[in-house]
Amino acid sequence: MENKQFIPDQIQKIKKEIFPIQLPVFDRHGDQISFYAEQLMNGFLLSDDGYLIRDLLSSGLTLEEIQEELKKRLNNTGIFVDGYEMKTMVNQEQFVPAINEMTQVFLDMEKLFFNSE
Q: What are the residue ranges in the chain where pLDDT is below 70?
């Protein structure tokens, strides 16, 4: 299946439920990076369900260190933190670029673990 066809098919499957989006990208544990999408009246809410921040906390980083780095990386992205979750609200046209942007932030933040060792 071609990528251009896959993404619209996945968007069409999103109804009024939370839908997992598994990427062909792996984190430092070898786990597939996943985001979750919820269809709203005016678009989609994308979230990492708190995975990144909780993972970095369990790796020994402090919440203050994580928040400081997130502020730098989230500047001008449209991504925000709600509790422990990274989130962004997008319309259908912004859906794929937003997933790419969240993935880049996710991978950049994982570098904190390696820099803290």
A: 1-16, 113-117
Q: Which residues contact 102 (CB under 8 A, 6 or more apart)?
A: 35, 46, 48, 79, 86, 88
DSSP-assigned states of every residue in 18-82: EEEEEEEEE-TTSPEEEEEEEEETTEEEEE-TTHHHHHHHHTT--HHHHHHHHHHHHTTTS-EEE
| Residue 57, token pair as written in the block | 């906390």
CB 53 within 8 A of CB 86: yes
pTM: 0.80
Alpha carbon distance 74, 32 (integer Å) = 22
pLDDT at 76: 86
Predicted pLDDT at 100: 95
Listed in sequence order, the residues at least 6 apart from 111 whose beta carbon sits closer than 8 Å to its beta carbon are none
